[in-house]
Design goal:
The protein contains 6 helices and 10 strands; from the N terminus they run E-H-E-E-E-H-E-E-E-H-E-H-E-H-E-H. A 5-stranded mixed beta barrel has the order 5-9-8-6-10, surrounded by 4 helices. The mean pLDDT is 92.
């Protein structure tokens, strides 16, 4: 019933190598096989899967895991920071996503934004507060084209109130609304897009942040 969509393949690999996770299903695409794992946390079963990168693949993976029986989802991943005050590793809960992608329009009527499930967002907040983790909530910009995050677009999205940019949130939220399942997401601030010059900040090497975010997502998911 509960599932975490984890974008951190390094974390999933560690779970598998420590025999903390077992494969219960393989999904398939032209990329290859996509394992669905199960882990046990205090006697509770939790599915874990990598949703792939980009709205179409992630939305399709979500569809298939819903079809397999999961109804309560928390995703954990990273995002580009549009606000320089979001230091590397800062936690963000996207409550609204700007629909600058294509997948969401196949699930919901045309519109500028789509929201995460409020109850799932609240579950994340409760867990973060219990662990005394600093976080912000706000709007994210979901785009299909990572190399077209131009300076002008970044300026416009910041003016709209977007804190981050990523490639899946709007698609996730739309699929979840259409299928009537609960879905919210945890992000950490990665590369910095707030100035004229892109700064990678070596965001993908933040191993401890990524693992911590996964366990926070797992706890929030199981509380739903």
């Amino acid at each position: 019933e509960h599932a975490v969509a984890c974008f951190f393949q390094d974390v999933i690999t560690q779970l598998s190598q420590r025999h903390a996770a077992r494969v219960i299903k393989h999904l398939k695409s032209e990329i290859g096989t996509h394992p669905i794992y199960e882990i046990d946390i205090a006697g509770k079963r939790l599915a874990v899967f990598h949703p792939g990168v980009g709205g179409p693949l992630a939305g399709g993976m979500l569809e298939e895991v819903i079809a397999l029986g999961s109804t309560k989802f928390i995703a954990c991943g990273g995002a580009g920071a549009l606000d320089s005050t979001l230091t590397l590793g800062h936690i963000i809960i996207p409550t609204i996503a700007v629909r600058d992608e294509g997948t969401s329009y196949h699930y919901l009527p045309p519109g500028r934004e789509v929201a995460a499930d409020p109850e799932a967002v609240k579950a994340i907040e409760t867990v973060l507060q219990a662990h005394q983790c600093k976080y912000v909530t706000g709007k994210t910009w979901t785009t299909d084209a990572i190399y077209r995050e131009t300076a002008l677009k970044v300026q416009r999205r910041r003016a709209e109130g977007c804190l981050t940019v990523e490639m899946e949130a709007a698609s996730f939220f739309a699929v979840a609304q259409f299928r009537k399942v609960q879905f919210a997401q945890l992000l950490y601030s990665g590369d910095d897009l707030s100035s004229e010059q892109w700064d990678s900040r070596h965001w993908s090497t933040q191993t401890s942040v990524r693992e911590k975010l996964f366990w926070l997502a797992a706890e929030a998911c199981l509380s739903l």
